[in-house]
TrEMBL record:
PROSITE patterns: APAG (PS51087). GO terms for cellular component: mitochondrial nucleoid; nucleus. Residues 243-368 form the ApaG domain. SUPFAM superfamilies: ApaG-like, YccV-like. This is Polymerase delta-interacting protein 2. It comes from the Eukaryota. GO terms for molecular function: DNA binding. It is found in: Mitochondrion matrix; Nucleus. GO terms for biological process: DNA repair; error-free translesion synthesis. The lineage of its organism: Eukaryota, Metazoa, Chordata, Craniata, Vertebrata.
């Protein structure tokens, strides 16, 4: 599948030269493109083979002039079992950015592409498209930092400010974004190691992590990271993931509860949701429209239609198969549901609809004073 091309190429390179030390190299060709290469260093004859991975982030334009080759680190075999620890360096297998693991989350993955057993099926929720929702399976995701050097190369394919908080002041609609944070599925991690004591450029790297050569990986959590995680756990926690594929377009939705705020003496509950669209086929398609239905426990049903998503109409191709974005929704009730569809256009000007899997909007107890969320950096100051 197109979305797995990077992973397959890197894994095959490592498997072919398992007795050597494959090094991940970055090749930047122009301001709108970055490619990763794997260079194997043979133990007997030096450099023996090179595996090029055309991972293009924003453009298919090739600008060989001005390309810069930089060593990133030594590639490691991905873990088939278990989980990665805090401080693990990695490449994202779909978006290609460099990152480092802060801490793992255990989520429940509701994959509607998997046919449930009769004993696992649940009654339809509103907008369930006439199918049954399978029982969630435990799956590992990671809170990670993104290397700011790679943010310009992925900004058109994935938002680099996907984690937001309600701000701590009177404007109940104000949001605070944390730059360069992401949630990454276990299978999207391509691990590597580096001898660089500051291998990731991010304003929070040295505030959250420190180098300890006696550890593996050698980057360990500072007390600051532990305090930040504990204080903001309710608003960072990834608990449910919903996934469904229609005509080779896979939609993955992750909702996050953000808290309750008072507005005109009435409670308003806020959620953010992160959506990833992936083209698993070979056909080039473009997202044209969105159609949402939002059901509130108070009994209201809202319909939202519009062009594209977050002001964009992304093209999904074999070379650039994925697009990821975040948005927000508020209800005047502590829970509800969302579902809907995206309308895509093929190269031959025909259209088709892609289902958005239904997902719940569930609130949590607000532990902070007056229902206000703590600021994301409250524990750092």
């Amino acid at each position: 599948m197109a979305a797995c091309a990077i992973r397959r190429g890197l894994l095959s390179a490592v498997g072919r030269y398992h007795k050597s030390s494959p090094r991940i190299l970055g090749w930047e060709s122009g301001p709108y493109e970055r490619r990763w290469l794997v260079l194997s260093s043979c133990t007997t004859c030096g450099l023996s083979a090179q595996q090029q991975q055309p991972t293009r982030f924003l453009s298919s334009r090739n600008r060989p002039e001005g390309k810069v080759l930089e060593t990133v680190g030594v590639f490691e075999a991905p873990k088939q079992q278990g989980k990665y620890e805090t401080g693990q360096l990695f490449l994202h297998s779909v978006f290609g950015y460099r990152g480092i693991v802060l801490f793992p989350w255990q989520a429940r993955l509701y994959d509607r592409d998997v046919t449930p057993l009769p004993s696992e099926s649940k009654p339809d929720s509103p907008g369930a498209h006439g199918s049954k929702e399978v029982t969630g399976k435990t799956h590992t995701y990671y809170q990670v930092l993104i290397d700011t050097r790679d943010c310009p190369h992925i900004s058109q394919r994935s938002q680099t400010e996907a984690v937001t908080f309600l701000a701590n002041h009177d404007d109940s609609r104000a949001l605070y974004a944390i730059p360069g944070l992401d949630y990454v599925s276990h299978e999207d991690i391509l691990p590597y190691n580096s001898t660089d004591q500051i291998p990731i450029q991010h304003e929070l790297f040295e505030r959250f992590l420190m180098y300890d050569h006696s550890k593996a990986p050698p980057f360990v959590a500072r007390d600051t990271l532990r305090a930040w995680q504990e204080k903001n756990h309710p608003w960072l926690e990834l608990s449910d993931v919903h996934r469904e594929t229609t005509e080779s377009i896979r939609v993955t939705v992750i909702p996050f509860y953000m808290g309750m705020r008072e507005a005109q003496n009435s409670p308003v509950y806020w959620w953010r949701y992160c959506i990833r669209l992936e083209n698993l086929g070979n056909e080039v398609v473009q997202l044209r429209e969105r159609h949402w239905r939002i059901f509130s426990l108070s009994g209201t049903l809202e319909t939202v239609r519009g062009r594209g998503v977050v002001g964009r109409e992304p093209v999904l191709s074999k070379e650039q198969p994925a697009f990821q974005y975040s948005s927000h929704v508020s209800l005047q009730a502590p829970s509800g549901h969302m579902w809907g569809s995206y309308r895509f256009e093929r190269a031959n000007s025909t259209f088709f609809d892609v289902r958005i899997p239904p997902f719940s909007l569930e609130s949590k107890k607000d532990d902070s004073p007056n229902g206000f969320l703590p600021g994301p950096f409250a524990s750092l100051v």
